Amino acid sequence: MAVPPLRAIVDAGHDVAIVVSRADARRGRGGDLTPSPVKAAAIELGIPVSDVVDDVLTLDPPAELGVVVAFGRIIKPHVLAKLPMVNLHFSPLPRWRGAAPVERAILAGDDVTGVCVMDVEEGLDTGAVYRREEVAIGPDETADELRHRLVDVGTRLLVETLAQPLPTPAPQEGEPTYAAKIDPSELRIDWSRTPLEIHRLVRLGGAWTTHHGKRLKVWRTRIADDGGLELLEVQPEGRGRMPFRDWANGVRWQPGEPLGT
């Protein structure tokens, strides 16, 4: 999510002195160390990279502003005291402060979400807002699809905001809600829930159930004309994604046969 804003800031002519990203992680079967996507982009752009936030305070000349996008770590007060920062947050604050605003908006059945360019404070997404824009959520839109659209809108808002001196931000108004990180246990489908609730869960990505004791991921569903839930795309354990009909034919699944067993 941070790569498009980084590239856009550079393309707009801003001098990016350093990029702070998470340390390289071991990925794949070989366990090779792999940089984060934003670190890889920064290296390509010739920008120094660190995984230590305090390194932003050692720059000479000092940085004028920090830009935070999907960082996922608390920035400590002594850093904020020396370097003002703006954050690109993917919700209409104060609704959905926290780690998973896109997912929580879908689960809650929100019709509209948004993007805010906000001031970074010590509190969790409590800062005043410089710019905001609402974004409608499609009834079948997945979290990944919505996230891509929000990044496009947010990148444009961020570049427009940084093109001139920062205005006086507006305090957040309204009752805050909090977007806790999605726990893996939440992705197991509870077939006693309504079709609409299950459809929302599937749209997050990674929802799963079982069939004869084997895990079955459910990637696409839709609400049928009669209000029921239609399964469209699944992924059996150890195999790739496939149309639900192909899977059902292969295991001789019959309509009405319960899943989750």
Attribute tags:
261 residues, alpha/beta, 4-stranded mixed beta sheet, 4-stranded antiparallel beta sheet, 14 strands, 26% helix, globular
Describe it for me?
This protein has seven helices and 14 strands. The protein is an alpha/beta fold and 261 residues long. The strands form five sheets. A four-stranded mixed sheet has the order 5-6-8-9. A four-stranded antiparallel sheet has the order 11-12-13-14. Strand 13 and strand 14 (242-243) form a beta hairpin. Helix 1 (3-11) packs parallel to helix 2 (37-45) and helix 1 (3-11) runs parallel beside helix 5.
Low-confidence stretches: none
Query: How are the strands of the largest sheet arranged?
Result: 5-6-8-9
Mean pLDDT over all positions: 95
Kindly estimate the percentage of residues that lie in beta strands according to DSSP. 15-25%
Largest sheet data: 4 strands, mixed
Give a count of the beta strands, DSSP E runs of length 2 or more: 14
Please state the oligomeric state of the protein chains shown. Answer: single chain
Helicity level: 25-40%
Q: What is the H/E string?
A: HEEEHEEHEEHEEHEHEEEEH
- Give me the Rg, rounded: 21 Å
Helix vs. strand class: alpha/beta
Contiguous helical run count: 7
Terminal Cα separation, in Å?
Answer: 37 Å
